Amino acid sequence: MKKPVLNFVINTIMALCMAAIIGIGFLMQFTLISGEKRWIKYGENVNLYFMGLDRHEWGTVHLILGFVLIGLLALHLFLHWNIIKSVYKKLISRPLLNKLVAFGFTLICLVLILLPFFINPEIKTNGKSNGKPAIERSHAKR
Question: Are residues 105 and 74 in the same domain?
Answer without folding.
Answer: no
